[in-house]
Write a structure and sequence with these properties.
The complex is a heterodimer of chains A (175) and B (160). By secondary structure, chain A is an alpha+beta fold. Helices cover 27% and strands 30% of the residues of chain A. Chain B has a domain at 53-149: Immunoglobulin-like (Sandwich), CATH 2.60.40. The longest helix of chain B is centred in the N-terminal third of the chain and has 16 residues, at 5-20. The chains are: A alpha+beta (175), B mainly beta (160). The interface between A and B is large, with 75 and 47 residues.
Chain lengths: 175, 160
């Protein structure tokens, strides 16, 4: 009788452990399969966003003295940069930020406009508010980065009418 | 049974630990793109301000004071010009302005800038005092925005 009882207990313990381990394994397998499966599939097909220059927005001028880029420009478009972004991926992408690189200025003929006359307002990514969601395989869509650039208040006279170029990287994630 | 309890607990820890790490499956996939964008700097607006008006007190050879008045220029964003450069042209002398507020000073490297006391006032005025025999005199006004210099206005009506 005692032997039978001990045996039943052992069987119960082993069964319990088995259920826990087996059940846990099923759960782990399920999560891993979902996570890894989706991750592998998307990782293999993720393509970079296709960014092209949009129409220039408000023309820059020297920032008024004793102001900041956020307060100094009266027009909302001054300092903004405009792009178009296409999403070649088979899934929607939400663009959340843009990073502005170093600016290269090209003054008009016979003039000078020193490097550093036009600067990005931030070296860190600029959050887009609200973020822009592009549908899967979307055509080029306008994306504006407000307040991306400013001209220093001491910009020389030769910067009038200058053109400039700046690399802009937009960053997003699958929606 | 008691000797097997640690093994059971270890199995539980393993099982629950694995389950706890599972939410990794919710990760999103990042992507980005870069392009070189182009932009344009503004130029000082033309035709701003219009020709000044001039009045004079005194008759040569006594000291004469010309008072030049013009409308405030508002180049950008509803903000007034930071200063003005005035020029004088005279039929009998090319001498620069010798006294008075119109001759200005060097501001941010720009010579001859008259800085108004109230840049946002509707009109601005300055004085040019001289004992020179100038003949007929005219003035122009050029707006300044920090170091940017605009186009000169049309000349004022000539005064003696």
């Amino acid at each position: 009788m005692r032997t039978t009882t001990v045996l039943r207990r052992r069987v119960g313990v082993v069964a319990g452990v088995f259920v826990l381990l087996f059940g846990g394994s099923v759960a782990v397998a399920s999560w891993t399969a979902t996570g890894t499966g989706q991750g592998s599939a998307r990782a293999a097909s993720v393509s970079g966003l296709v960014v092209t220059a949009g129409s220039p927005l408000g023309a820059l001028y020297p920032l008024p003295a004793d102001t900041t880029p956020a307060t100094g420009y009266g027009s909302g478009t001054v300092g903004s940069v405009s792009t178009t972004v296409a999403n070649p991926n088979p899934f929607p992408v939400t663009i959340t930020s843009a990073t502005v690189g170093s600016v290269t200025s090209s003054p008009l003929g016979g003039r000078t406009c020193a490097a550093g006359s036009v600067l990005p307002t931030s070296s860190a990514p600029i959050a887009l508010s609200p973020p822009v969601t592009l549908a899967a395989g979307s055509a080029p869509t306008a994306v504006t980065v407000p307040g991306a650039l400013y001209m220093v208040s001491t910009a020389e006279d030769g910067c009038q009418g200058a053109s400039f170029s700046v690399p802009v990287t937009v960053t997003g994630a699958s929606a | 049974m008691r000797r097997r309890l640690p093994a059971v607990l270890a199995a539980l820890v393993l099982a629950t630990g694995s389950l706890g790490a599972a939410p990794v499956a919710s990760a999103a996939w990042g992507t980005s793109g870069t392009a070189v964008l182009t932009g344009q700097a503004a130029r000082m607006p033309a035709g701003n301000p219009t020709a000044p008006t001039v009045s004079v007190v005194g008759v040569y050879p006594a000291t004469r004071t010309f008072t030049v008045t013009w409308s405030t220029a508002w180049p950008y964003g509803g903000r007034p010009a930071t200063g003005y450069v005035l020029t004088r042209s005279a039929t009998l002398s090319g001498a620069p302005m010798d006294d008075g507020t119109c001759k200005g000073a060097v501001v941010h490297g720009v010579p001859g800038v008259y800085v108004p006391a109230d840049a946002g006032a509707a009109t601005q005025s300055c004085t040019d005092t001289t004992r020179l025999n100038l003949g007929s005199v005219q003035y122009t006004v050029t707006p300044v925005w920090s170091r940017w210099v605009g186009d000169a206005s049309a000349a004022s009506t000539a005064v003696q």
